[in-house]
Amino acid sequence: MNTKTLLCFLLCSVFFACIPSKTLIDNDALLARVKVLSSDAFEGRKSGTEGAKNARSYIINQLKKLNVKPLTPSFKQEFNFLYETKKYAGTNILGIINGTDKPDTYIVISAHYDHLGVQNNSIYNGADDNASGVSALLAFAEYFKENPPAHSVILAAFDAEELGFEGSKYFVEHTIISQDKIVFNINMDMVSRSNDSELFIVGANTHKLLTPLLNTAILTSKKIKLTVGHDGSDGLEDWTYASDHASFYRKQIPFLYFGVADHNDYHKSTDDFENIHPEFYKEAVYQIILMFNIVDKINF
């Protein structure tokens, strides 16, 4: 066996060892949560509004039902910020899953729950952006009930992503966990629809082991196309600073960002539950969980 073949064999062995034997998630619940979070009842979840407050209560209640412990006494990390001369009060939602093997090092799995609110009497419900990421975040909580992680995991639903990533900025600057103990970020922002059935993975070059492992994992995906890119090296738009993962990257914390290409309903009032692609979404979340298992095996 030559060196290249041996390396491929070893990488495949690592990947398949990361595939859990137990049931992953409840797909019906995954879709139901997106439908709820992107309903008119939450009025577009804009930071500082009653709609965002109600969405926050819903997310916290879901975490409690899934037996997630709060990282703060109330799950909340409150902060204030200025955006375009207006003062806002924001609130991150933070839960904690204790690791089985490396409990003193932390992986942050994140998704922002805010969106654009009400504009010109139209509600911007943000089903893909980013009710999809938040429901996927809650799916991780469900998954960890039967498949506890090796590293401790912080489940972070960030506020104010749409207003300059203020929630994630505040978290990394005022983290409740010592910053040197946070070893990785997995961020999900828009993962529920793609006309090309393509999910992009950004950040593979932020840790030396990620690229070969991800390339091996991608070969096993049959239902959707997984593409490593949008990292400034492939001629595509650079998404390194496109969402909350940028706040971690600026602190030299490696990350993987999962997202889809912009679609016709991006940042429009038509980004509704009826327009997501359920089969693509379910498979995307499945693949993200598999990717997490790869990351969780790395000895940072």
TrEMBL record:
- Pfam families registered for this protein in UniProt: Peptidase_M28 (PF04389)
Q: Where is the signal peptide?
A: 1-17
Query: Mind listing the GO biological process terms from this record?
Result: proteolysis
Matching SUPFAM superfamilies, A to Z?
Zn-dependent exopeptidases
InterPro entries recorded: M28_fam (IPR045175), Peptidase_M28 (IPR007484)
Q: Which domain of life is it from?
A: Bacteria
Keyword Hydrolase present in the record's keywords: the answer is yes
**Which part of the chain is the Peptidase M28 domain?**
92-284
A molecular function (GO) held by this record is: aminopeptidase activity
What keywords sit in the KW lines?
Aminopeptidase, Hydrolase, Protease, Signal
Q: What is this protein called?
A: Aminopeptidase
Organism the protein comes from: Jejuia pallidilutea
